[in-house]
Every structure is written in structure tokens, then in C-alpha cells.
């Protein structure tokens, strides 16, 4: 479906391409992240709390 008062169909024209490489400033490996998730899960945190901690305290 198109827009009523515009010629476009509402698709974003400025979408950035997905990067497949890891940022250079990131020092954690995937195994380190998994370990951290397992530790937080054993403490009894919910998945949303684990995700929040992963964003705020990456080290």
C-alpha cells in the first residue's frame, strides 16, 4: 500500500548496511559473553535483566 499524500511507499532510503565485522574496540570474545550470561542466569536474573547488565557493564 502506498501513502495517500506522498508518492513513496514509506520505505526508508537511508538505511545503513549491516556490518559483519566485530568493532576494533571490543575485547570480549563470544565465549566470554556466554560465561557472563551463564553466571548471571545462575544468580537468578531474568533475561531482560541479563540483557540490561550486558549493555551497561560489558567488562
UniProtKB/TrEMBL annotation:
<dbReference type="GO" id="GO:0005730">
    <property type="term" value="C:nucleolus"/>
</dbReference>
<dbReference type="GO" id="GO:0003735">
    <property type="term" value="F:structural constituent of ribosome"/>
</dbReference>
<dbReference type="GO" id="GO:0022627">
    <property type="term" value="C:cytosolic small ribosomal subunit"/>
</dbReference>
<dbReference type="Pfam" id="PF08069">
    <property type="entry name" value="Ribosomal_S13_N"/>
</dbReference>
<dbReference type="GO" id="GO:0070181">
    <property type="term" value="F:small ribosomal subunit rRNA binding"/>
</dbReference>
<dbReference type="InterPro" id="IPR012606">
    <property type="entry name" value="Ribosomal_uS15_N"/>
</dbReference>
<feature type="domain" description="Small ribosomal subunit protein uS15 N-terminal">
    <location>
        <begin position="1"/>
        <end position="50"/>
    </location>
</feature>
<dbReference type="GO" id="GO:0006412">
    <property type="term" value="P:translation"/>
</dbReference>
<comment type="similarity">
    <text>Belongs to the universal ribosomal protein uS15 family.</text>
</comment>
<dbReference type="InterPro" id="IPR023029">
    <property type="entry name" value="Ribosomal_uS15_arc_euk"/>
</dbReference>
<protein>
    <recommendedName>
        <fullName>Small ribosomal subunit protein uS15 N-terminal domain-containing protein</fullName>
    </recommendedName>
</protein>
<keyword id="KW-0689">Ribosomal protein</keyword>
<keyword id="KW-0687">Ribonucleoprotein</keyword>
Amino acid at each position: 500500500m502506498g501513502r495517500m499524500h506522498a508518492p513513496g511507499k514509506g520505505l526508508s532510503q537511508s538505511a545503513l548496511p549491516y556490518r559483519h565485522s566485530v568493532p576494533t574496540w571490543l575485547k570480549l570474545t563470544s565465549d566470554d559473553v556466554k560465561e557472563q550470561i551463564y553466571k548471571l542466569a545462575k544468580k537468578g536474573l531474568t533475561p531482560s535483566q541479563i540483557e540490561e547488565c550486558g549493555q551497561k557493564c560489558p567488562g
